[in-house]
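Sample intake sheet
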Amino acid sequence: MDQTLLSRGSRDRLWIGFALGVLAVLTAWAWVFMADAAAHQSMGHDVVMHHGAQDVPVTYIGISLLMWVVMMVAMMLPGASPMILTYTTVARRKDVARTAVLGTWAFVAAYLVVWAGFSVLASVGQWVLYSNGLLDGAMGRTGPLLGAALLVTAGVFQRSALKEACLTQCRTPLSFVLTGWRDGVGGAFMMGLRHGAYCVGCCWALMLLMFVGGVMSLIWMGGLAVFMLVEKVVADGRRFSRLSGVLLVAAGLILTVSTLGVVPM
């Protein structure tokens, strides 16, 4: 019997390891996809220019949505990995190893569903900006004044109570999993939705900074992904987040002053 239990535990660990390995491959694929898309970033712009900007909102939004969804996989899965690992570990220790693998997939799927919802809004917003001449290209960046406004908005939000509340949930995976535990695959899906909501609440303003650096900019993607991971895992994450808020506001004000050519008296 002990050997049977040991064998079953080994199989569970193997399947869970396989699931996490697939997630790692999925993340790597997303980065490769975005790198290739960035190298051919004129694709969406060519479609729009060929057919006319007002004739292809569905096509444009569809292309943008694909980019944003893949971008969310590339940027957000690494930051969610501590929470995913914690869920998997707790699932096995609660003697529900039979559903740990499916539960892990359900948790991740729900998490990505929430970010897919954010991607829809971001894609529509991108279309609105582009159709009103507020982007320098179909997959480009905003002008300096709107960029400055986004920097200031993100900076102010970094120091808000909502940001701190959502970041706290993201920074304490064990507490989140134990206090909000739900059995079964359906329960895992609900937990993933909840975690995704907290994650979006924590990072939405930072994600809008992609419009500042360029939606297809791998440098901004990588920088923001590292930034969001650091504030979730480092010991002084809250202090890091609040300090970054000051720096973002300062950057926005400096960009505004330099754009308008205002010289302090």
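Comment: The mean pLDDT is 80. The radius of gyration is 21 Å.
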